[in-house]
Amino acid sequence: MKKLLKPVFVFLLAFLARAVIRRYRPHIVMVTGSVGKTATKDAIATVLATRFYVRSSEKSFNTEFGVPFTVLGVGNPWGNPFAWFLIMKNALALFILPNHYPNMLVLEVGAGKPGDCARILKIATPNMVVVTRLPEIPVHVEMYASPEAVREEEFSPAYALPAGAPLIIPADDPYALDNAVRTSARTISYGMAEDATVRISDVAFYEHEGKVAGMQATAHLHEESKNFIVKSSVGITQLLPVAAALAVASAFEISLVEALTALENYEPPPGRGRLFAGKNGSLIIDDTYNASPAAVEEALATLKIFPRAKRPYSAEATKGRRIAVLGDMLELGRYSVMEHERIAELAGEAADVIVTVGIRARAFAAAPKHAEVVQCESSRAAARALPDIVREGDVILVKGSQSIRTERIVEALLAHPEDSVRLVRQEKKWKQRP
């Protein structure tokens, strides 16, 4: 029954969302790409809220369902018939009653299968597009003919831009740079490349009271430069959403200082390199939202250089280990074996202990030459085993594809159980799933 009703609901939601956009004509900033969309969307919305009445996608609502939910200003009804009734009621109210509708929408769009972006573009046409990283082997590639096909679809919102409209692209991404020249848009770049419009430099871990508490860097735009901090999360990938938001701000003539002031309280979304105190005096890097090869590679690079904890009242480092808890990377199709084997090499270089979670992740145990290896069949099994393994000074990276549910491992390792509300997938519907 659900399969029969889905096309009906998709059509109805698209119709209603399209009608709302035509009536209120908001300015639309569309965020696309393979890695970092949600954090980038959140940072952009934070900056634009200083000048506009902004509505942005909730969490990672980036599908043919999620985008209309954002346009209509409603949450995910899941399988609740009454909630679906409220959605229709809310949509009708937007047409019939006077409404103070947002004049700026920041919409995250995703491509899980061919045609996804095209369907979303029939609902909303962007006035600005922001592209995040387009890696060599993107997630969802098993649904496409090739990695190039995924990148082409993820970049496709840029082709819908009117001539001269702003196109924000990562200056360090060759695919984004190559595709940008095929548009008539006005390109603004961000990243670490020397020629980036918004350039970040002097990247380092941010420490507070002798402990790593985030990332810091310097942002440069034209003749302006200013230091900034991203709190509670680690990794270079946590700095790029800020750089993208600064690029968007420049398109709206919002100064670097004003934009960074707006971002002072910005924190990346749950499951993106977030730091938590772990059991037995350990530290957790919670990167459990999802796991594409590019994202795992970046997370391991962060773990590899993560500073060793200091002993209390001493400048001496502890003997804590770097532990990589890695779940299956899914939706890679024929690239799965190759990418798991490649990541295994990186894991062996970054970690003293490697914990594999799932069948595919067993490949991570093959390459390491010196690392201790622990293999678990599931996140539940790992959640039972790890609390007895970790010790003082350990830094524990936890990462895996969404379906592997590695947030359960983080929850089992938390020193303060009340921190679980800050993890991904804590809603009742997720908790009820196996």
Q: Can you offer a commentary on this structure?
A:
This protein is 33% helix and 20% strand. The model has no long low-confidence stretch (mean pLDDT 93). It folds into two domains: 2-262, UDP-N-acetylmuramoyl-L-alanine:D-glutamate ligase (3-Layer(aba) Sandwich); 274-431, Protein-Tyrosine Phosphatase, Chain A, CATH 3.90.190.20. The protein has helices at 2-24, 37-48, 66-72, 81-96, 116-121, 147-155, 174-180, 240-251, 256-262, 293-305, 336-350, 379-385, 407-413, 428-431, and strands spanning 27-32, 54-56, 104-108, 128-131, 166-170, 186-191, 198-208, 211-221, 224-231, 274-277, 283-286, 322-327, 353-357, 372-376, 395-399.
